[in-house]
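Lecture notes, unit on protein representations.

Consider one protein chain, 350 amino acids long.
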Amino acid sequence: MEKIKHFFWLCSGVHIEILRKCESESSKYAGIGATVFFTGVFAAIAASYALFTVFDNGWIAITLGIVWGLMIFNLDRYIVSSMRKEGNTKRDIIIALPRIMLAVIISLVIAKPLELKIFEKEIRGELVIMEQQKLAAQEAVTKLRFEPDLRKLNEEIAQLKSEIVSKTDSRDQLDRLAREEADGTGGSKQRNAGPIYKLKKADADRAEQELTQLVEKYDHWIQEKLTALSETDSLQRTELTMLDRAKLDGPASRMEALSRLSGESSAIAWANWFILLLFIAIETAPVFVKLISPQGPYDHLLKVEEHGFETQRIENLARTNAEVKSRAQDLPQTESGFVNDRLNVILNKS
């Protein structure tokens, strides 16, 4: 148990020799270190899953995930260990704000891959719908590109056939009038093959001849346009079969699917928020613990230790300055004054 506590102390970034002098603070910093450690573990797991969806290779994903987890662990450890209690609440909050913002950003990065894993089954179903919609959109664009040519060919073929039908109706009408004149059921109502019948028969024969010529002429054009229509339709079908049917399974597609699911289902949206808030709470917990905790024995001992180093630094600097001033007495007056001025400037800055 002592080894575990010592490990969590290392994770919290405390000065262990100073912490051993104040046992009342040991549990607090062990808890902070445990939070930092498990945040790094969560980060490694989340990164491994996210990278597995990218590389589709377990060893690469785990290796890079561990590296990412160690980086997050080191960053969290620095955030916690760099905070100092000044005894001034306003000043402490101002100092902690950048660290809290950084902790929130880290929690967002950690939470998203785990959300994708938690809702993996729902996301997989939504990805199928997205694939179908993408394919339908690609088909619509492809058909839209060929539609003008197909419509134009169909209209031209329909127009040619319409002219043939119109000419056929005209021929049939003239032929009917000639027959009615011949059998007395129409026209002059006289049953004979007189001059009126001959005129109507001539009109009918002429219409028949014109229809024959028109059919011969238009049949060639219609066949050409039917061939072009068939080729265009075949080209369209070929391009439709060659459309990209790649499976949507990358991180961006999964996040898009999760976003769509959140918009469609309030339950999933609330679950997303709760997961996100949970990780924000976990990630910012060490910072808030140090922020709301009063100054304890460890903080006072650490301040004394740091003050001792600062005092020693000032003493060493003063001693060095005194030696330099002593040596400067042997220099010419102008150089001696310049050296003293520079030393005064350095002392004022210190």
